Amino acid sequence: MHPREGLVLHLVNYDDHGRVRPILYRASLSEMVVPYGDPDANWRWRAAFDVGEYSVGRLASPLEPKLDAPENAQLIDATFADDFGKPYTLERAVAIYERDGGILWKHYDTVSETNETRRARELVMFFVATIGNYDYAVNYVFKQDGSLEVDLALSGIMLAKGVKEKRADEKHSMMSETTGHLVAENIVAPHHQHFFSFRLDFDVDGPQNSITEMNTAAMRAGTTNPYLNAFVMRENVFKTESEAQRKMDLQAARVWTVTNFSAKNSLGHHTSYILVPGANASPYIAPQSLVRKRAQFINNHFWATRYNSQELYAAGVYPNQSIGGAGLPQFVANNETIENQDVVVWYTLGVTHIPRPEEWPVMPVTHVGFKLIPGGFFSRNPALDVPK
Question: For the residues of 73-127, what is the DSSP string, one character each?
Fold first, then answer.
C-alpha cells in the first residue's frame, strides 16, 4: 500500500503446472485528473490531480466489514509516515477476498444431452480512496482464465453549486445551463471528466518484450473476397516510444499487446498479453489550457516507454508545481527504442460525467476499467483443470 499510488501490485505470475511464469513486474495507478467544464471564475481552476497532489494511498478510507467488503474478506492494515516522519496505522486499508464469478466456461451437447459447465471464482484485491466529495474504489480482479481485470468503482457526492432555477429549461429535460445539469431544486452539478493513468510494467515470460498494435478491417472486394464477408487483423510492432503514442479506434477494434518474441507456445505463437480497453473518453479541455498542459498524459489512451526506475508518475513528480511538459511527454522525449526491451505500458482511462438527478444526493456506483488477457500465452484454455 503506497501512500501516493494506493494499492500497488508486484510480481504478478502464473503457476503453469509448476512453472512460474512472470506477467507483470509492477502495476499501479500512476495519476488521475478531474477537469471541470464550467467556465465560471470559481470553477475554471478546478482540476484536481488526485494522485500527485492529494495522494490516494494516504486518503484511503477504513473499510467497513460486511459493507465495503463481504464477510469473507481479509482486511489488512497499512502503515504510513505522517508529515513529521512518524509512522501511523491506517486500519482496514485493503481487502482481499474470493467471490463467485459466474460461468467460467460451458458447453451443452445437444446430441448426447450432456452438459459441462464450470463455475468461476475470482480473487479481488481493492482499496477505496475518499478525496473530498468523491469515493474511488480500485479493484484488481484475478481470474482463472489467466486474465486480470482492473475495475474502477466511482461513487460519492457530486461537486455542485447553487443556482436560482428550481426546474429545468422547457427545451431541455435536465439542463439548467449549457455546462451543467440541474440535479435538485436550486442545485446544478457541472459537467466534468475523470482521467486515470495506469502504469503497467510488464515482464511477459521475462523482461525482454515488444509492443504491438492489432487493427481489424474489412478485406477489399476482389477474388480473395468474392462474397464480401472477409475481414482481417493486421499487427504491427512499435519500434520507438514516439510510435507507441496511440488513441483508441472502435472502427478497427484496436487493442495492444505486450509480446515476448523469444518465447512461443506449443502452436508456435509468440507469448503475449493483450490490453483490452473498456469504456473510455477523449478530453474536451483545450490543448492550450494550463490543466491540459500539466496533464498531457490524457493526450493519448496508450503510451509505451522503456523501463526507467525514476519514471513512475504520468504527470511528473510534482504536478502541483508543473507548468506543463512533465511526466510522459518528458519520458518519451528521447524516443528510445522499445523493441525487445524492458517495456512499460501507460493506459489512460477517461470518464465523461454528465450529471443526472438520479445521482443526487449520492451517486450509485459507476464501473469502468480494462482487462489484460492472455494472447498465445497458453496453448489452450488454462481453466480446463477447474473441477466441476
Answer: PEEEEEEEE-TTS-EEEEEEEEEEEEEEEEEEEEEEETTTTEEEEEEEEEEEEEE
Give Cβ neighbours of residue 109 (< 8 Å, ≥ 6 apart): 115, 116
Specify the residue for cell string 468523491. Answer: 134
Residue 271 confidence (pLDDT): 98
User: How large a percentage of the chain has pLDDT more than 90?
Assistant: 93
Residue with cell 502464473: 14
- Quick one: residue 158, left, alpha or beta (phi over 0 = left, psi -120 to 50 = alpha)? beta
For the chain, list the strands marked E by DSSP: 9-16, 19-35, 47-49, 74-81, 87-109, 114-131, 134-143, 148-156, 161-162, 175-177, 180-184, 187-190, 192-202, 210-218, 231-238, 255-264, 270-277, 302-306, 343-353, 363-375
Q: In sequence order, what are the beta bridge partners of 188?
A: 161, 182
Q: Is pLDDT above 60 for 287? A: yes
Distance between CA 147 and CA 375 in Å, rounded? 10
What residues have CB less than 8 Å from 168, skipping those under 6 apart? 174, 175, 176, 182
CATH number of the domain enclosing 28: 2.70.98.20
Per-residue pLDDT tens over the stretch 328-372: 999 999 999 999 999 999 999 999 999 999 999 999 999 999 999
- 83 within some domain: yes
Is 0.70 topped by the overall pTM? Answer: yes
| Positive/negative CA dihedral, 338, 339, 342, 343 | positive
**Is 383 among the domain residues?**
no
Q: What is the mean pLDDT of residues 171-186?
A: 75
Residue range(s) defining the domain that contains residue 142: 9-375
Q: How far apart are CA 254 and CA 207, in angstroms?
A: 24
Domain count, the chain: 1
Does residue 387 belong to any structural domain of this protein? no
Task: Return the amino acid letter for 53.
Answer: E
Catalytic residue ranges: 50, 134
Summarize pLDDT for 116-146 with one digit per residue, the tens.
999 999 999 999 999 999 999 999 999 999 9
Identify whether 64 is part of a domain: yes
